[in-house]
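Suppose a colleague, Dr. K., hands you the sequence of a protein chain of 339 amino acids and asks what its three-dimensional shape might be. Before reaching for any lab equipment, you can write down a predicted structure in token form. Begin with the sequence itself:
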Amino acid sequence: MVEIDFSKPATQQLHRVLVDAYYREDRLLEVTAKAGISPADIPFQETLRRTWMFLLVGLEQAQRVEALLDAVLADPNAAKAHADVRAFRADAIAVPPPAPRLEVHPPEASERASFEKVMGDKPTFLDVAFLQAGLDASRAVARLRMRFAANWFLGTGFLIAPQLVLTAHHNLYDGNGNRVTELEVQFDYEATLGGAMRETVAAQPLLDTILGEPDADWAIVKLADVVPGDRRPLRFASRPAATDAWVAIIQHPDGLPKKIALHHNTVTYADDNYVHYLTDTLGGSSGSPVFDEQWQVVALHHAGGDMRVPGMAATVYRNSGIPIARVKARLDHLQVEYT
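The predicted structure, expressed as tokens, is then:
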């Protein structure tokens, strides 16, 4: 059986040639599909380099590395990788020589700046106030409990005005267009740093004010009063989310105490109708705000699953939101006032 061991130079070299040959997501999806690997089984990471690493490890555990290598060797567009793939199978892959050992000496003052650097394509430094801004934004996010007939469901919503909550349409209407029969809006349903639960602040929704549209999966509901506490309604971003941008989601996944998803948070596709991202969500996350780096809302989270990306033949497993500009346009058309 082929061994994938990233402590060994042979595996490292195989990884390098596969990344070079399949440096775009659509190419990776093509070759894995030919190997009989479902997109749902691909452990997408924030970069394709890391995706390939996790994929190879997972395929070894499933004893499917040989199927992938067969697909690579059958791919004429990956001809540059064929020699290394065959050599890897024969346990004779050539690895680049190690870099020459540099003589280390105490740096002069003029040299010290070169010992540290930005590691990626652009700096990732953020003001520490970024953390406080995120915490402030979280206070506008609420857990929703919705009742349709005899069944209760869970979701998320957020303030866009002192007495106005935005959420997903399917949180407030069932598949037949029937409006929710009961609705609970709970702010501060979250754990403290010590693990104890905060005291929840309940808001009274006015069910006869519910307004929404299924096409863009948005809905709003007015509250009877301003929610107590220092919580500011969230603001809509003026610029749309872009591919490779960073997005975070504050949410109540599975109805749990408030969570924030910050890892694997790359936007993989965006157009006027949808934003696809790797940020984690679960049932109960629908209606959550999708934030940019300024903690402004760029999308309304509404779904997850196999998505078809325009221009790509294969489907991919992604989480998805509605661009907030699409929702904003409808709110403006209906003359809804928001912050």
